[in-house]
């Protein structure tokens, strides 16, 4: 079973159970109890670079300021935007891989794809947005 799982770590416990002639519950139990394998979800993250150290320092300093003055939070507007790409979609909710460790896998995609951008802001007095912006590239 270890060999089959290492050969095809992206195969589900159900597919392994079919190929090995075991019940799905048995496959899961063996993977967990004997091999210490667990089903990991893909997590989309950004790579950290040297320039990101400045951001981390800013956040730590800002947290110290908030701890010194709790009223500061009431004077903040926090906004963010998210880009929803209309192509090259990875459904990380339904994707698992079996392994003894949570490895990092990279999935490369085209840099400029058609997308919709959503912007929203939040503060102590409420939420502004969301506002939707379509990609205007032709």
Short description:
The protein is of the alpha+beta class and 138 residues long.
Count of DSSP-assigned helices: 4
Helix content: 25-40%
Q: Going across the major beta sheet, what is the strand order? A: 2-4-5
Query: Pairing-aware structural class of the strands and helices?
Result: alpha+beta
Rg value = 22 Å
Shape: elongated
| Contiguous runs where pLDDT drops below 50 for at least 5 residues | none
SSE order in H/E notation? HHHEHEEEE
Mean pLDDT: 81
What does this structure look like?
The protein has 138 residues and is α+β, with helices and mostly antiparallel strands. The protein is 30% helix and 25% strand. It is built from four helices and five strands; from the N terminus they run H-H-H-E-H-E-E-E-E. Helix 2 (13-20) crosses helix 3 (24-33). The longest helix has 17 residues, at 52-68. The termini are far apart.
